[in-house]
Specification:
Its EC number is 2.7.4.1. With 293 residues, the protein is an alpha/beta fold. The protein has 12 helices and 5 strands. The protein has a single domain, classed as P-loop containing nucleotide triphosphate hydrolases (Rossmann fold). 45% of the residues lie in helices and 11% in strands. The longest helix has 27 residues. The structure holds adenosine monophosphate and magnesium ion (MG). The site of adenosine monophosphate has 12 residues, from α6.
Amino acid sequence: MGHSKKHRGMKSSTGWDVPPPEALRAPAGFDLAAFDRHSTPGWSHGRGKAEKLVAHHAGELSDLQERLFAEGRSGGSRSVLLVLQGMDTAGKGGIVRHVVGLVDPQGVAHRSFGVPTPEEARHHYLWRVRRSLPRPGYIGVFDRSHYEDVLVVRVDELVPKKEWEKRYDEINRFEERLVESGTSIVKVALLVSPEEQKKRLLERLDRPDKYWKYNPGDVDTREKWPAYQEAYQAVLDRTNTEAAPWHAVPADRKWFARLAVSELLLDALRRLDLGWPPADFDVDAERERLRAT
Ligand code: AMP
Ligand code: MG
């Protein structure tokens, strides 16, 4: 640890017409129904250039991740939390592989949230989330999150309306406190179109190497598409806060979603203005001691 890698070449996110955090931020009054899931907001180039840029970001991403990790080891309190929400096939797993996979896995705390286990179900819905938060120095990645508690829970009426209604404000307070305690939250809604979802689900049935990803329940969820869109709209309306804003990422083109999330993660890390922790020992004295051995 402690060797200093230099950022190579362009530091800005070249190629974008608009800085990506700005192009992707869900504005107040965001209209989910009107959102083009095949679009590439802020980006007017194609796939080749996007993939090159993601590859180019790898060096800076892993350098910043290492700085964050070093800070955490030296008593720092900061961390980053990437929250990935999206319907089945939106590409959450691909983001983890292709974007989060660019950094040292030792510094990543990945957690996916499925149907609560019996133990989880006995606790408040934020209990399992709190226990999964990244420790100082880590990049936490949530594949689904506490937002399921106002998405599937709302659509399938798993708790009464008066219960889930309270959760939006509760989630906002929870996230605000998290940010105050040093966690930068990057919330990403990966928005796939129903047509593209159908294509991706059919592909899973056409390919034996994809059967494992197919869950017959996904078709039941798909049949409730309008109710899910309404629930997502409510999330974007009611939890798009200053402390933890939402980003709307069109997911019909996987290469764009991957570029977009790599930029958002990079932006969050850059804003931490990470240095290297100073030595807590006498460097010269240590050098002399080593020479003498
Ligand atoms: P997958 O991400 O494909 O592994 O699927 C996980 C499943 O768990 C999805 O169908 C989610 O809707 C479901 N899930 C996640 N969180 C909850 C929750 N709090 N209550 C009920 N179902 C959930
Ligand atoms: Mg699934």
